[in-house]
Structures are given as structure tokens and as C-alpha cells.
Amino acid sequence: MKKERVLIRFRPEIYECFELEAAYQGLRVGTIANQLLISELNKAASVKPEHCVVFGSEDYAAIPEGKRSSYYVLPESKDIIEYLPEQTGKRGAKPINKQVTFYLTEDQLETLKKIVRIQDIRKSMDHGQIVTYRFAVLGLLLNNEALDRKPPVIH
Fold it and tell me: What does pTM read for this prediction?
């Protein structure tokens, strides 16, 4: 089965969570990151598309009492953007933001595309075309308990 490659850079605070989890499980960082993302993609795919909502949105507010468990709730864009790597790459400087390559099946990629559209973050699409998956990938990963240990971002 052919898999699509999606390359994403992460801030040290996020990458460190992958490293901790990888050390704990005795696996490689990329393997752990892929497992965590696929786990969240499966959770998002397991609910109806209209049950995938962004925290704090009108759709989120409209969730009937006691029905939250049948929804997949994505973090707000401000919370995702806070954990995006800063674009401060000086020529010749060693990047502090490490890259992870994700390998996704066609179905997983379709779910990721749906997430991008649900999030509706301005920088992720251009004239209806998806230009980056980084907001969607990070939003999904921030929902995973393995990232609960991340320290707050210090600017």
C-alpha cells in the first residue's frame, strides 16, 4: 500500500514529548510520532465528519449536553499556533525545530484534509487548495495524552 509523505517541523517543546515517549517505549522518535498521529486520525475518522469540531466554535457550542464523547474536538487555532515553530532560521545556524516525516495512507490523508477544512486556519489554504498540513497535524497531536507533558512555550 502506497503511503504519502508529510514532513512537519516541530518546536523543541513538542519534539521532546516524542523523545520521551520514544525512550519510554523503546522506539524511534519518528515511529512514535507516526503512531500518535495515526491514533488521533483514527479517532477523528471514527466520528461523523460533522462531529469533528474546533473548541470554542459555534459548532462546539451547539453540541448537545452529554453528547461530547461522540465528538472529536480540535484545539483552537491560537493554541495550535502557539506551538508552531518560529520561522527564525538564520543562514548557517543549526535549526532548533526538528522535522518528522509522517507516512499516511490515502484514507488517513483524506481525514487530514477534512481536518484542515474544519480548522479553517487562513494560512493552511490558498484559494481552496491545501498548502500546509502543519496546523492540522499539530492540532491532532496536541489532543494526544503523550503531549500532555509539554512545557508551556516561552517567548
Answer: 0.90
